[in-house]
UniProtKB/TrEMBL annotation:
Top-level EC class as recorded in UniProt: hydrolase
Species whose genome carries this gene: Nostocoides veronense
Record-linked NCBIfam families: 3mg, PRK00802.1-3
Domain of life from the UniProt record: Bacteria
Name of the protein in its database record: Putative 3-methyladenine DNA glycosylase
Protein family per UniProt: Belongs to the DNA glycosylase MPG family.
Amino acid sequence: MPEVEPLSRSFFARDVLEVAPALLGCLLINAGVTLRLTEVEAYAGEKGDPGSHAFRGQTPRTAVMFGPAGHLYVYFTYGMHFCANVVTGSEGFASAVLLRAGEVVDGHDLAAARRPGIRERDWARGPARLTVTMGLGRPDNGADLCGPAAQPRILAPLTPIDPATIRTGPRVGVRGPGGDGTAYPWRFWLDGEPTVSVYRPGVVRKRAR
């Protein structure tokens, strides 16, 4: 892959609804694998977004979201998976973009070794699969994506994305008001990309008796 500078801090330090679609087609590079992002979701934190981890304010878990833009927010979910987000906006106001899916464009042997027995289309088709394929986990929480030595890092698309190919809709698996696709059509993806994940609405889980 060509060696170019990672995206600047100013790219990320914008409104999350500007940054999210602008990340489509960008290249995420980490641990020997390069991924072309095909699907993301925006989360606006305490700015009226009930689907966000930070909706009720800062906690030790969400502290990175309240920090400077251009850092990685990695969280553990369902007791088994990690998901990776890019922090956006102004420091002190939590917002982030969930990296939902992408196409491996370099480092195929490493990706295949991390996802044995899985077909290539599905290597990073979903946020938990994406982190496994990219070798991302808890130690990457808070990682700075900006600067020449950044690891992981995100590069601009090799070719510009046609805005007409960008689609929007409800976020996957978000329960309650935050899952309302009319109020929060904050999932963005590239039309026709086979790596885009399947939409599933949020389901309220019943507590075991």
